[in-house]
Amino acid sequence: MLSNKRIQELELVMEFEKVEECFKEVSSWIENVGRKRLKETINLDDSLEMLLQAQKQFREFDLVASEYCRRGQEALKKMDRWEDFSSVDVQSYRVKLQSYKDQLEEFCNQLDENRHRICETVRLYEFFDKVR
Q1: What is the largest CA-CA distance in the chain?
Q2: Which domain CATH number covers 32?
Q3: Which own/partner contact pairs does 29-32 have at CB distance under 8 Å and 24+ positions apart?
Q4: Parent domain of 39
C-alpha cells in the first residue's frame, strides 16, 4: 500500500509539471498584462460618452482575461487530487499550487468587481442622462 501511494505521488508530481506550464503562462499574463489593465479601469471618466468607450475597451479586455481565468481554473481542477496527499515530498508542490490558486482567485474576483462597477456606473450615468 505504501508503495502504491508513493507511485501515485510520483504520478501527481509528473502531472503537476505538465500542468505547471499552463499555470506559469496564466500567472505571467496576470502579472504583466491583467493587473495593469485592471488598474487602468480604476478612474472612470466623467462623461457618458467616455464611459461607454471605456466600457467597450474593458469588454474586449474582459474576453481575453476571462479566457485566462478559465484556463487557470481548468488547470487547477486537474490538480484537485492533491488534497488527498500530505507527504513531505509533495508539500513544495502543494505550496506552489496554492500560490497559483490564490493569484488566480484574486485576479478573477477583481475582474468580476470591475465588470460590475463599470456596468453599474454606465447604468447610473445613462439614468442621469435620461433625467436631464
Answers
A1: 75
A2: 1.20.58
A3: 29/68, 30/68, 30/103, 30/104, 30/107
A4: 2-131
**What pLDDT score does 40 carry?**
87
- For residue 82, give every residue at least 6 positions away whose Cβ sits within 8 Å of its Cβ, in sequence order, or none: 12, 16, 90, 93, 94, 97
What pLDDT does 82 receive? 64
State the Cα–Cα distance between residues 34 and 39, nearest whole angstrom: 9
Cell numbers 475582474: residue:
111
CA 83 from centroid of its chain's CA atoms:
21
Rounded CA-CA distance 68/23 in Å is 10
Pairwise pLDDT comparison (80 vs 62), residue with the higher score: 62
pLDDT tens for 68-116 read 999 999 988 888 766 666 666 677 888 888 899 999 999 999 999 999 9
**Residue 3, all three cell numbers:** 508503495
What's the total number of domains in the chain?
A: 1
Q: Where are the beta strands (DSSP E) in 1-132?
A: none
- CA-CA distance, 121 to 48, in Å (whole number)? 9
Nearest to 114 by CA among 31, 40, 45: 40
